Amino acid sequence: MQELRFLDRLILRSIFHKLRQYTIDLGYFPDISQYGDNPTPAQIADYKAQLLQIKNDKGFYIELFSESSSRHKGEKECPRIVVSLDRSFNGEIGAPPNQIIKNEGLGTYSKGALPGQSANIIVAVYLISHNSEQTYILNGIKDNVIGERNYISFYGLPENDPFYIYRTGYYNLDDPTENTTERGYLYTVPDAFLGDMVIYDDNIPAIKEIKVDIPEPKDDGLIIP
């Protein structure tokens, strides 16, 4: 049985970590990857000290969330970037059946099929801020990482080709009662095959030689009985 292929999750994670790393490089958030999956009390204290230092140096730090907007997380804290999977629509291309692919290093070929229809994946990037300075910086991070269109590398898969992404929408969710500015930017990743290839035959031998020369018939001459 083949493993599930969560391409939509991988695309969302790749965008999130690209934004996160750029925010860290600018000095607006600590690099929490240095603490591992189970941080010690000392590491937690160090993380809080770094947040305080960033706030003292720059006036604020920038948090990143994925999957849901902070409007679903109770009180809004700013500034914040939220990356969320919005929806998907049918793409523009389909995959032909019975594709032949090579098993690298095995000397044989496989026959399989991708899903018959691609999907356009819609990703929303929310920028939530309290004032114009925060808004400009959040916009600068978004613009430098994604822009209006870009190619994004898959997170954790440097050997894979990057995926294409471009902006297709925008709306605002400003909340005067909370004194927050929330802008949503919609991006489309076009023609992604969400399912994995289903292999029907993985042991097709390679063709060694194809001959196109037709041998001349032999003439043994006239035979008299």
* Portion in beta strands: 25-35%
Query: Which structural class do you get from the secondary structure elements?
Result: alpha+beta
- Principal-axes shape call: elongated
Sequence stretches where pLDDT stays below 50 over 5 or more residues: none
Query: What number of structural domains do the residues give?
Result: 1
Helical fraction: 10-25%
Total strands: the figure is 9
Instruction: Calculate the terminal CA-CA distance, rounded to whole Å.
Output: 70 Å
Strand numbers in spatial order across the main sheet? 1-2-5-8-7-6
How many separate helices? 3
Care to give the gist of this entry?
By secondary structure, the chain is an alpha+beta fold.
Report on the structure:
Strand 7 and strand 8 form a beta hairpin. This protein has one domain. The model has no long low-confidence stretch (mean pLDDT 84). The longest helix is centred in the N-terminal third of the chain and has 19 residues. By secondary structure, the chain is of the alpha+beta class. Helix content is 23%, strand content 34%. Strands 1-2-5-8-7-6 form a six-stranded mixed beta sheet. The protein has a three-stranded antiparallel beta sheet with strand order 3-4-9, with no helix packed on it.
What topology emerges from the helices and strands here?
Elements (H helix, E strand, L loop, with lengths): L6 H19 L15 H18 L4 E4 L13 E15 L4 E4 L5 E6 L3 E13 L2 H14 L3 E4 L10 E10 L8 E12 L5 E8 L20
Parallel strand pairs: 1-2
Antiparallel strand pairs: 2-5, 3-4, 4-9, 5-8, 6-7, 7-8
